[in-house]
Amino acid sequence: MHIHIMYLLFVILIPKMLSLQMIVTYGKPTNFTDATSFSESSWESCVEECYLQNTCVLAYSPTSPLNCQLYPVNRIFSVQKLYSTDLVAFKVTNSTATCPTGDNPPTFGNLTNYGSISTDLVDYTYSVSYGSDDTWSLSYNLTGRVCADGWSMFVRPTTNWCLQVFGSPSVSYTQADAIHNCTNIGTVLSGLETLDERDFVAAGALTLLGAGYPEFAAVWVSGMRKPECYSDGWENLAECAGTNMEQFTYTDTYMANYAGYTWDPNTPDRNSTGVWQNCIQMWIRIESVSPDFPYDTNPNGNSDDATCNVADSDDFSLRGFACGKLPEIPADA
Ligand SMILES: *[C@@H]1O[C@H](CO)[C@@H](O)[C@H](O)[C@H]1NC(C)=O
Ligand SMILES: *[C@@H]1O[C@H](CO)[C@@H](O)[C@H](O)[C@H]1NC(C)=O
Ligand SMILES: *[C@@H]1O[C@H](CO)[C@@H](O)[C@H](O)[C@H]1NC(C)=O
Ligand SMILES: *[C@@H]1O[C@H](CO)[C@@H](O)[C@H](O)[C@H]1NC(C)=O
Ligand SMILES: *[C@@H]1O[C@H](CO)[C@@H](O)[C@H](O)[C@H]1NC(C)=O
Ligand SMILES: *[C@@H]1O[C@H](CO)[C@@H](O)[C@H](O)[C@H]1NC(C)=O
């Protein structure tokens, strides 16, 4: 005997005029990479919490004891159908205000159902389909947001990110100049989430500076050392040691990783030049201009710490910077 527990929680309108419902049935998540526990007194309030949380696509709990788990978009991929006990609630679209009925919710008649999630950072559409192995599969498409002309899109764990490099062989910038220039156009001095982002900034800077650029050129990227990591006693703080990225604060607050910061050997070297180098620069190098560098260890795009307010010195010049911003919903969407 199959008993389908179903109810329409409530219906709201979200952008693009799709309404979302929570459809409850028996099942258990079997493939997921993230879930958060939510302390709730009833299954109904667990379902309601998922409905209210912008990024939640599925709620789950064993019947007894209650243990509400909420699954975010793009982190839950399959749910095993059950015939009793554990409950799941799928957030899916339905164009009518009435509670749908039919065999095998939320994929009534084993059709595909859909959902969409829109946050400040990202938009997804997703589908829920039912397979012969008694399993619902969820698949996701990132949609909607674009980078304006001149900006290039990169995928980050929590959002996509738009990057553009600015600079010239004849101008120098302090880090404050770079931050100011990015802020002026509604962006931030960007960090480097991935090697792809690093390589994009390094290649873009080389293009702007030209093949015969002045030697020892660099561009600014996000990162300023925390005061406790250069005040007396910093040597005793683990977060300040070596290449630990926790020693810096970032204008780019959308990084989950710092994999694009590949340090030159023996850097960051802090105050080795006699003054504190509390900001982060990216070296721009091609062999014809900088033949003294071993390119296997000092490639174009490596990071180094640099003196924040010195744009120009005998040793280097900061000739540009990378700005970053969130993708935008197109005006005609
Ligand atoms: C879980 O789902 C993801 C995304 O569809 C898939 O790449 C992965 O192979 C699945 N893992 C298992 C163990 O089925
Ligand atoms: C939406 O609700 C209607 C009315 O109950 C139902 O016939 C239809 O199958 C539902 N569609 C989806 C995709 O859930
Ligand atoms: C949906 O799939 C289930 C399980 O495979 C099956 O028992 C049922 O007959 C199917 N329903 C339809 C309408 O195809
Ligand atoms: C995702 O995009 C692909 C290619 O455009 C499409 O075939 C698929 O149906 C989409 N899936 C969802 C869940 O929107
Ligand atoms: C940076 O800002 C200054 C002052 O507003 C402006 O003159 C300059 O053109 C900007 N540079 C870039 C590359 O945006
Ligand atoms: C560099 O930092 C070390 C450790 O804080 C300190 O002992 C030394 O005086 C500093 N040197 C300069 C030139 O600031």
From TrEMBL:
<feature type="domain" description="PAN-3">
    <location>
        <begin position="4"/>
        <end position="138"/>
    </location>
</feature>
<dbReference type="InterPro" id="IPR006583">
    <property type="entry name" value="PAN-3_domain"/>
</dbReference>
<dbReference type="InterPro" id="IPR016186">
    <property type="entry name" value="C-type_lectin-like/link_sf"/>
</dbReference>
<dbReference type="InterPro" id="IPR016187">
    <property type="entry name" value="CTDL_fold"/>
</dbReference>
<keyword id="KW-0732">Signal</keyword>
<dbReference type="Pfam" id="PF08277">
    <property type="entry name" value="PAN_3"/>
</dbReference>
<feature type="signal peptide">
    <location>
        <begin position="1"/>
        <end position="19"/>
    </location>
</feature>
<protein>
    <submittedName>
        <fullName>PAN-3 domain-containing protein</fullName>
    </submittedName>
</protein>
